[in-house]
Amino acid sequence: MAPRKKEVLFDFPNPMDNDCLVGHEQTLKTFTDAWNARETHPIHPVWMLCGPRGIGKATLAYKIARMVYGNVGDFFIVDLAHNLDERGNIKSDAKAISVHTVRAMIEKMQMSSMSGNWRVILIDAVDELTIAAENAILKLLEEPPQKTLFLLVTHQLSNVLPTVRSRARVEKMRPLTVSQMRELCNKFLGDVEISSEILKLSNGSFGRIANLKASGGDEIYDELLETLQNPHSSASDMMVVATKIAASPFLYGIVLDAIAYLKLADLYPMATRGIADINRLNLKADVAIFKIITEIKKCL
To answer: Is residue 263 part of a domain?
Structure first.
């Protein structure tokens, strides 16, 4: 069976253009207090915003960035949308951020204005960097330039090099509450019905709600559980489900939901590493997801 065709059911702005930050008041206050006191207490140059996908980490990062560089200083963005190949061309279909992207950013930063204004480097996300790209960032973090703020968005802290983590102030951001999710749903999803099952599967991630609705993720999750719990399921059946899940990175998490539902917590580290390796090692998503599903099946 072919994967369900995606439908655009929402109009959610890019974090760069989104002024609607819901939740994370304490994290924002922590940074704002540190920023306002920077003249007497130098601010930490590297802030890592850590938490699940779709909870507003990048939205907060851009809000902080605007506060710091104030449309006067320099602002450098490292993400998949600006990913470069070895020739300096945009590589729109990449699964991981290349070392060429990081090197180009460093080169631009070294050529930037020395006016004395603050510079901001925003990386969205650190766990989408290739190993070579992360090592290139590490060299920059070892001796951060003066009046330069690094904002590192991170989906899974355990996937970040310990040497990178050790140089950052880590701010762990919590999933959104049900009321916060409803607020965002009312604003961005309009009349789309949001069931209690969708809220449960979203795990406090509004981005995940939107993508679950757009991709039929709730139904794919039910199919995954049915396939896992059916003693007669074949490798072909599991590959069909894996292909559907592989259609969108926002669906990868339903594999972890299935592990939690089936009370197989010991498999969680294996599954999270396997999902992270899809981007970091440029693996075929359907094959990687299939391997994880197969391991779950063996334990039932």
So the answer is: yes
What residues have CB less than 8 Å from 258, skipping those under 6 apart?
A: 221, 224, 225, 228, 296
Q: Return the exposure string of 242-275: e unless at least 16 CB atoms fall within 10 Å of the residue's CB, then b.
A: bbbbbbbbbbbbbbbbbbeeeebeebeeebbebb
What does the alpha-carbon distance between residue 141 and residue 2 come to, in Å, rounded to a whole number?
45
Structural domain containing residue 295 = 216-300
Strand blocks (E) in 167-295: 169-172
Query: Residue 125's domain is classified under what CATH number?
Result: 3.40.50.300
| Total number of domains in the chain | 3
Of 198 and 175, which is predicted with more confidence? 175
Q: What is the pLDDT of residue 113?
A: 63
Q: Are 233 and 295 contained in the same domain?
A: yes
Alpha-carbon span 182 to 254, nearest angstrom: 21
The predicted pLDDT at position 30 comes to: 97
Higher per-residue pLDDT: 30 or 205: 30
**Structural tokens at position 159:** 């996937």
User: Does residue 13 sit within a domain?
Assistant: no
